[in-house]
Amino acid sequence: MTSPIYDRIGRGYATTRRPDPRIARRILDALGGAGSVLNVGAGAGSYEPESASVVAVEPSGEMIAQRESAAPVVRATADALPFAPRSFDAAMAVLTIHHWGDWRAGVAEMQRVTRSRIVFLTWDPEAGSGFWLLDYFPGILELDRRRFPPLDELVAATGGRSYELPVPHDCSDGFLGAWWREPAAYLDARLRAAMSGFVMLPDDEEERGLARLEADIGSGAWERRHGALREREAIDLGYRLVVADVA
After folding, report:
1. How does residue 12 score in pLDDT terms, banded at 50, 70 and 90?
2. Mean pLDDT of the residues in the chain
3. Residue 202 CB burial class (10 angstroms; 0-12, 13-18, ≥19)
């Protein structure tokens, strides 16, 4: 896990990436009532369970400065966790593994310091490749296919299982898929600034995609192709929970 990307996207992150209560419930259920939890790549503290004793690990000073959680935070990386073996009941990592320098080492470290369970919220680019936004910004899909661990490899490395995590239409956590029913939201530079896929996309590719999207919204083309989505309450965009017990 390295800090530069979150030092770039972290500004204003705490206001545009608010935890969604439905996703929070799924994560809390997956943690299985753990009394102590390590949050790896914790960012601003989203989804840290209030019912547990939490320690956060985060390498980015920009993200640490925005934390609202009272949980103690250690500046460190996933592949070198500064804790003794079996220090926590459970460990969690929410939409962070694609920023780790060596995700397998990070998984091994989480297994080492955990007594009971590890939980990941990740994205499967193959399951999510049909998301309409990626037609306008194919470079994000190409990038994320390189960044995210293949889901089957992550499941194998953890010895766990994966579960679909549908995105509600009014999701309060502004990650890449959050605005799937509101295309105009992606024209907002403030919202895009908290999505690493957009931050890492070359400026010319972003500008071309934005111009196409804005034109399609204005002409009604987007509505004709995707307007039926407005009848949906939630949709599977490839977000997955991976839950594994630690032997």
Report:
1. low
2. 93
3. exposed
